[in-house]
Amino acid sequence: MADKIVVAGVSVDTRHWIGGERVASAETFTDHSPIDGQPVGEIARGGPAEARAAIAAAKAAFPGWAATPRAERARLLHAIADGVEKRIEELGIVETTDNGALLRSHRRGVMPRVAHNFRFFADWLLRLEHEDFETRGHANHVSWDPSGPCVLITPWNAPLMMASWKVAPALAAGNTVVLKPAEWSPLTASLLADIAAEAGLPAGVLNVVQGYGAEIGDALTSHPDVRRISFTGSVPTARRIAASAATNLTPLSLELGGKSPLLVFADADLDLAVDLAVEQYDNAGQVCLAGTRLLVEEAVAEEFTRRFAEKANALVQGDPRDEATDVGPNIHPRQLEKIDAFVQRAIADGARAVIGGQRLDGQFYAPTLLTDVAQESEIVQEEVFGPVLTLQTFTDEDEAVRLANDTRFGLAATLATGDRERAERVTAQLVAGTVWVNCFFVRDLQAPFGGSRLSGVGREGGTWSFDFYCDLKNTVTAPGGWKDHG
Q1: Where are the alpha helices (DSSP H) in 7-69?
Q2: Among candidates 228, 233, 252, 234, which has minimal Cα distance to 242?
Q3: Is 288 assigned a catalytic role?
Q4: Is 439 a catalytic residue?
């Protein structure tokens, strides 16, 4: 296999990055672009041997990195951010080619946010402290000690964004990292390794291994030298990771699926509510936080549906590299088949497609809205992860909350209302890690992020990230009794 491929004019190394060196594998897997289904290149297919090598490199680098002063760690994270900012266009076009997300979004939002992730946790590190306190005259001091090598497993829907969300706080905390990107979108993780090396990050502090699912994943998550595992992905995979980590009681942070509600009350600004609902088709519906269950008060349901269909039908579907495109392709033929199977089963069970409901040419699925769906139906209860929304109606707040909370998930919720008191009442009852009121996808890195129920375990963001990636230590010191060494 070639060590490097050229993607839209950008050279990308297809090998692992272990201990500050590029490492090949005997086997490869083929990476395809969802834009046209064509092969992008052959990627090193790692297994247990590469997993062990990466963890060994992270373990060897850990003492030196953990002992590195906070200010120096922060400086290096800022240097990585500088490198990302210099390569926004390259990172954007490579990731668009690799996973089909909109190039305009990568240019304007996603890649700048990647750089911001590194800057934020670098700066947060420098002001991270806990107020000392006393217990019966004894001094208490809380410190955040680096925990050790971390395995970070990231999804295909936002590859570099999610990698930076995990890598930045793990490195800031003084840990070393083994990053395993999704096999359907492996390329920008390799570029991140180049950027980190150019920034001066010591060898072994960040390692990147490529591979297919459990072939390499089990060896990473079951290794006794791994001290933290952070995973974003599906519930079934999370169960496997948790079982693997259980042997060593390795702490886990799991950000999993969602089946989030978007509640529209009759007193809401209806144009705003429609805009929020149509926004759920972002990234071809491949967003874990998406409010895929539209719950609309009966009094405005007909008008809402009319306006929604008009606006959604105006979305431009096509090449994600085109500035005019609103909805790109879905990631993989297997995912497309899964999406269509969900929709066709729902229609067979009596659901009605207000818009969409079918596959298009290539790896595209028409933005779809299904009505006449039962609360207990599969399409309402299970995550589709595609451009598919359902619409149900409610008559009062109690019914709205009941429907909103009636799933196994609890990642997010969105609420549209013009009544402040109602917003407070309803949000207090919603089971969700994040609730947006009259807005969507506004995220501050200092806020806690995670899910309830099957949507995840733990919280990251701001100090919560350091709480996870560190071993918190409380030192209790008795008063007096010190000898004079003068």
Answers
A1: 48-66
A2: 252
A3: yes
A4: no
